[in-house]
Specification:
- By secondary structure, this protein is an alpha+beta fold.
- It has a single domain, classed as Arc Repressor Mutant, subunit A (Orthogonal Bundle), CATH 1.10.10.10.
- It contains four helices and four strands.
- It has helices at about 15-20, 25-35, 60-70, 85; strands at about 10, 45, 75, 80.
- The strands form two sheets. It has a two-stranded parallel ribbon with strand order 1-2.
- Helix 1 (about 15-20) packs across helix 2.
- The longest helix has 13 residues, at about 60-70.
């Protein structure tokens, strides 16, 4: 499902969880995402407030995520994605 998020768009952990056949919480999706293969565009999944909670695991991951998003043209201001502009609902 994460692979279907278009470049330049983001979705939230909670929205991914709700879209599953058997819905789960955003927290559980976040745990799964922490272990996903590197070929999955994990950087396109953010918190419900547009922030990048990967910093909790490793602060350098937040920087990497923001770099990936900026390269794709996702609007980011003060470390927060503007979901009003780029939200993709799976």
């Amino acid at each position: 499902m994460v692979r279907t998020i278009p470049k330049g768009s983001c979705t939230t952990y909670g929205d991914l969880g709700k879209a599953l056949t058997n819905p789960v919480s955003g927290l559980l999706v976040g745990r799964w995402m922490a272990n996903c293969p590197q070929d999955i565009p994990w950087w396109r999944v953010v918190g419900k407030d547009g922030r990048c909670p990967v910093w909790k695991r490793d602060p350098s991951l937040e920087k990497l995520q923001l770099e990936h998003l900026a390269a794709e043209g996702v609007p980011v201001k003060d470390g927060q994605v503007d979901l009003a502009v780029c939200l993709y609902t799976p």
